[in-house]
Amino acid sequence: MDKILIAGPASQILGVNIAKKLGIKALNTETKLFPDGENYLRINIDDENLIANKEVIIVQTTGPSSSGNQNSRLIELFMMIDSVKRMGAAKVIVVAPYLAYARQDKVFRPGESQFADLIIKIINSLEIDEIYVVDIHATEVLNKISCKAINIDSMKILADYIIAKSDKDIVVVSPDKGAKERSKAFAKHFGENTPVEVFSKERDVKTGDIKMTGKLNLKDKNIVIADDIIATGGTMASAIKLAKKSGANKIYAVATHALLLGQAKFRILKAGADEIIGSDAIDNEVCKVSLAKIIADYLK
Ligand code: R5P
Question: Which residue among 20, 32, 156, 201 is the active-site one?
């Protein structure tokens, strides 16, 4: 079946790069907000037959950025799916490296919505054929998706970027217990016996304030702190301060999804990070590695 790719407004670079790796045509979109705030999206084609009977790959991350918040990104994604279905796509594949609301997978306080579940229900109702996400916050969320759903691991390409710097004495630090298994797997890319240290994080569910503890000796070690998401930078900055106190030499702050909200970059660099490293799951200035090849390999 012929394939065609639509690079959504939030993933223009990643979308085009995946299309190049697959050797297929990429289309873009036209978007705006109506005066009343409603989203508008149009796939940039003159002839709808371009979509009919094709396998259509829609690439749209749904994280917040300067040009759109996650609500707009989700609506745009839903609009693209709806449009290609209406135009007769034979198969619809969604690549949404960052899945918005995935962190709201539990009820933390009485009265809350477990909203990640509703996002999945909406996706299920759209009857797509496959969905690919990258390093989703909690993989359990994907168990509720009714089509083929794959969580792609970006850790090797992020590790390769740091390995290329040839630093010795690497220690991987997990900023909280939740990231422990991911950090252990990440550390293996630096060598079988690369040490992993785990900090303990407590977040006040009302204020969002973070308390981090951990007593380590990181003297003269080069530290890689790896997380799935950097949002406000609070987690990363706290981990960096602790690592510095413990004698760390260089510190790399690594995340698949470097959302870098508000003052996050300042907080992280001021805390003592030498570099912030993200992937093109989020299109911004710290995106140092591209997911295009690993995603394209899944789509071949
Ligand atoms: C939480 O468990 C996640 O893995 C991240 O640590 C968290 O989302 C980062 O958020 P922030 O940058 O706001 O501390």
Answer: 201
Cβ–ligand 1 contact at 230 (below 6 Å)? yes
Q: pTM here?
A: 0.94
CATH architecture of 1-151: 3-Layer(aba) Sandwich (3.40)
Kindly give the distance from the C-alpha atom of residue 229 to the centroid of ligand 1, in angstroms, as a whole number.
6
- What is the whole-number distance in angstroms between the Cα of residue 230 and the centre of ligand 1? 6
Asked whether the beta carbons of 188 and 198 are under 8 A apart, the reply is no
Cα of 175 from ligand 1 centre, angstroms:
9
The pLDDT value recorded for residue 146 is 97
Domain 153-287 has CATH 3.20.20.140: no
pLDDT digits (tens, 9 = 90+) for 9-48: 999 999 999 999 999 999 999 999 999 999 999 999 999 9
Q: Where are the domains of the chain?
A: 1-151, 153-287
Does residue 235's CB lie within 6 angstroms of at least one atom of ligand 1? yes
pLDDT digits over 273-282, tens only? 999 999 999 9
Reported confidence tier of residue 208, pLDDT bands at 50, 70, 90 = confident
Q: Does the annotation mark 201 as catalytic?
A: yes
